[in-house]
Write a structure and sequence with these properties.
This protein has five helices and five strands. It is of the alpha/beta class. The protein has a five-stranded mixed beta sheet with strand order 1-2-4-3-5. Strand 1 (21-32) and strand 2 (35-45) form a beta hairpin. The longest helix is centred in the C-terminal third of the chain and has 20 residues, at 98-117. The protein is elongated and about 70 Å long.
């Protein structure tokens, strides 16, 4: 009986004190120096401290088509728990303008501030910059582990 009580108490304390986080934040059409961009953040984490992240930078058109698909294709066996998506109007990764670079830097700064405020690891600009991937087409599964049952 004592072992059963300890087991039940252990499960209850895990359920009560664990931090299950599932959140989406979308900012449509922001602008810097008349250059439009949109941002999206998706978090799906069953633990709070070690929250690895990926930063996807793409054009505004691709952004509008893929940001709503992230929660649908997100797998529980994902390498990342935080997905940051930045869509810049007329963005070309091979020919990024100084303004595009400024928008990306501001986005990275916001990510770092968020991670520092929430006491998360890897809260420095150098690491965040190393997490940038360029999404050229609409295939999120190149970077995320997708559920196989969903056809998008």
């Amino acid at each position: 009986m004592k072992n059963l009580f300890i087991l039940i108490f252990s499960f209850l304390s895990i359920a009560i004190f664990s931090q299950n986080i599932k959140c989406e934040i979308i900012d449509y059409v922001k602008s810097i120096d008349n250059k439009e961009y949109s941002t999206y953040q998706y978090i799906n984490s069953s633990y709070s401290y070690s929250r690895p992240f990926i930063v996807l930078v793409t054009s505004h058109n691709v952004f509008m088509e893929v940001h709503q698909k992230v929660p649908m294709i997100f797998s529980s066996k994902q390498e990342y728990t935080d997905v940051y998506l930045l869509g810049i109007k007329n963005f070309d990764k091979n020919n990024a303008s100084m303004l595009d670079e400024k928008i990306i830097k501001n986005f990275i700064d916001d990510i770092v501030k968020y991670r520092i405020y929430n006491n998360l690891p890897d809260s420095n600009i150098e690491y965040a910059l190393s997490q940038i991937k360029y999404l050229v087409d609409k295939d999120l599964c190149k970077f995320l582990i997708c559920r196989k049952s969903k056809k998008l």
